[in-house]
Amino acid sequence: MEVALLAFAAALSVMTGMVTGIFEGKVAIAAVESIGKNPDASGKIQGMAIIGAAISETCAIYGLLVSFLIIFVLGNKL
Questions:
Q1: How many angstroms separate the CA atoms of 54 and 59, rounded?
Q2: Are 32 and 25 in contact (CB under 8 A)?
Q3: Among residues 49, 15, 6, which one has the least CA distance to residue 30?
Q4: What number of CA atoms fall less than 13 Å from residue 41's CA on the CB side?
Q5: Any idea what the CATH number is for the domain that residue 60 is in?
Q6: Neighbours of 25 (CB within 10 A)
Q7: 3-state SS class at 57
Q8: What is the pTM of this model?
Q9: Structural domains counted in the chain
Q10: pLDDT (tens digit, 9 = 90+) per residue, 11-70?
Q11: Given CB 3.0 to 4.6 Å as the disulfide criterion, which of 13, 25, 33, 38 pairs with 67?
């Protein structure tokens, strides 16, 4: 039972990567639409989109780190 709970907790923490990927795609779509509407501001829009994607990517990296900690640190204590 404890192994199943650890696996479920690791799966939930990996889901942060999935959610991050979905919303990074939405950011890219919004940036492309904005550049299409106003090509003169493409430099600012592209820069902000890259910064936003980089900041949100840290959430996915933290989720992966937490899942590794759950699997390898807590999993070895069983």
A1: 9
A2: no
A3: 49
A4: 11
A5: 1.20.20.10
A6: 11
A7: helix
A8: 0.72
A9: 1
A10: 888 898 889 889 989 999 999 999 999 999 999 999 999 998 888 888 889 988 998 998
A11: 13
